[in-house]
Structure formats: C-alpha cells, structure tokens
Predict the structure.
Amino acid sequence: MIFKSIKWRLLLWMAFLLTLILTGLGISIYEIHLAGRLDQFDDRLRHRVATLGAALYNNQNTNLSNVQFSPEINRLFQTKNTNGFYYVVWQRDRAEPLKKSKNAPGEITRPQPVERDTGTYIRSDDRGREAYRTTEQGDCALVGHIVTTELAAAGQFARWTIFGGIGVLLFALAGAWWLVTRALRPLEKISAAAQKISSGNLAQRISVAESEGELGKLAAVLNSTFARLEAAFAQQKQFTSDASHELRTPIAVLISEAQTTLARERSPEDYREALAASLDTAKKMARLTESLLELARLDAGQEMLRREKFFLHQLAEEGIKLVRPLADQRQIKLHSEFLPAEISGDATRLAQVITNLLTNAINYNREAGEIRVATRVENGMAVLLVADTGRGIAAKDLPRVFERFYRADKSRSGGNAGLGLAISKAVVEAHGGTIEVLSVENSGTTFTVRLPV
C-alpha cells in the first residue's frame, strides 16, 4: 500500500538518490583527506631519504660500516624522539642491512634496485609507508614511517563523515517530507472535493491558495468543470421539470375531455367536437415530444447533419415566402437586403432556424410593423440578420431567451412551448456557428446568426 502512495514513492526516490550522492561525496572526501595526509608523510619521507642518500653519496669512497652520519641525520632519526621514522641502509650487492635505526623493524626486505635509476620511490605494507632510493654505486637507503596512528585518525574522520552524512540525509528527508506534503496538499483537496461531488454535493469546489502553480491551474480547471457539471445537472433537472409540466397540461386536457364525453350520452356533433379537441391536444403533445427528442439528439451529437453547399440568402428568401401570409395578416412589411453568402451544411435544419426567427419576429412585432432580413459575408463568416420593430425583450429576460421552456412574454405564448430558440441555438452550434440577440424595449429585437463559409 505504501508503494502506491505518490508521497512515499517520491520520498523513497529522494532517499535513494540522496544516499547515492552522499555516499559518493563521503567516499571522495575521505579519499581526498587520506591522500592529503599521506602526501604530507611522503614529503617528509622524501626529505629524509634524500638527506640519507646524499650522506651515502658523500661517503662513497669510505667503508659504509664506519660511516658517521651528520648531526642533521642524527637529529632526524634520534633515538629518543624518532617521531615514528626509521631508516635502513644496504651496501651494494648485499641483502642484509648494513646500518639501521634502533626503531626499525626486525625484518625488512631490501627493495629491488632499478638499473641506473637514482629516483625516490614509495612503497606501502602493513607497517606503514617507506621511501627508498639507490645511489649510483648501488647503495640503498630506505626511510619508513609507522602510519597506524594516522590510519586510526583517518578512520575516525571516516566515522564522523558517515555520521555527518546520516545527519544531512535525515535533515534533507525531513525537508523533502515537508515540501512534498505541501506540494501534494492541493491533490488531497482535489480528491476530497471530487469525493464529495461524487456523493451528490455538486456545489463543492476546490480551495487552493496558490492559484498560479500547476496544481492551482488544475484546480481552477476542475472547478470550472464542476461548475459546468452543476449547471448541466441543474439544467437537466429544470428541463425534466419543465417538460413534465408542459406534458401534464395536454394530458389533463385529454383526460378531462374523455371523462366529460363519457359522463353521459351526447349527440354526434358533441362527440365530433370532443374528438377534434382531443386530436388538437394530441398534436400539440406530438410536436412537444418531437422537439424534446430533437433537442436530446442534438445534445448527444446523434443528429445527423447533411453537408451540402448552398447560398444562405436563397434559403432566407424561401423562408420569407413561407411566412409572408402570416405577416400579411398583421400588416407587417418584410424588407430584405441580401448579399451572396455560400455555406456548407444541412439546408433543412438551417431553414428551420430561419423560419423560427421570422415567425418570432412576426408574433412579437407590433401591428403594421416591419421586419428586416439581411445576409452578408463578414470576417470569413456568413451572417444572417433578422430585426423587428416589436416591443423588444426586457433586460432581465434577455440572457435567458435561449433557455428551454423559457418564455419572456408568457401572455403571448400562443401555445408555444418555448423550445424554438433553444433548438435554433443547438442547430447553429452544431454547424460551428453562433447566434446572438440584441434588444431594446419598445424599439425591437435583432437576432444575428454567424456560420462558417
């Protein structure tokens, strides 16, 4: 379970990487420290072996068994204060030491001579480090130093380095824990909010203080998604409620007509009237049901739209011809200003939009009013304009005119369910276009449709 947690996986990776880094750094520091200490001893060894070799060279014509070293050499290797240094001298071609200090090891092997090489060499063994050199005559001088104390000090330094590395690791992991916890806190809030939303609390939102960070932006996107989800559920709930209300009235009319007709014997004319009223009510229910199904298909993207090229102004002309008798009944004048605008889409569906807009412009216009219909191409979009001289739409109603079942002028609904503009908006958006409305009370209303050319 612990390995499924993002926090613990991050911390384990950090611990692993920090351990590798600190281990490598600690080993490097220890090696550098030990090499530095050994270099100091090697310099002192080289100095002493050079001094000793020079003394042998100066006494090359003397029997080395009787050689007397200078006070400097005696001082470097004095018996009472050797500082851990010792020396051994071999005469040419002899394996046994000729002369050595009192603190020299009992058994010590003469280094192998290098032909015609008088350089200084360093060797190491369990006792310590030794420097040796061979004179031109083949005599060999060796100076050594017991490094047990120094190795112990280096070991102590290594232990302190390990303890320090562990301390740094623990401090770094504590800081990493704090940072990871702080960084992942928005995810916990997101998870908690999502859980509450899944349980039905659609009003829940994610509260993130750092809105500019990556997780803050994610929270903002999720909050926006939750808001749209809440609005969609609210709209669906309202849609269901309104649909039930709209269907309840015609159903009640049908039941009432049937009950009244069956209450007593009636004449054929009475039965005919009752059947005609029932038929009219059933047709209204059929239209409402068809509109609801149409909206549902458009919302689900299941409405198949045909794609064919046609001119928008020709479609508008046909729409004007269709509604002209209705306009003549109210003495409303229709004016057209058409410019060619070729588009690709479903002509039948867009004709439905145009007819709906023209019908609304007639129904909500004043007597003997005017309607202006125009088409043009603007900024790569085909534009359809339908403007009337009616009473207009109140400012409080304007943002809701495209909502389903919403009627701004309920006194003049004329049996309209309030789905025409909602269907028109869905059809236009299915074509990749937009529909807008501008209205001033007592001055008129203008609908503008924009479609890709």
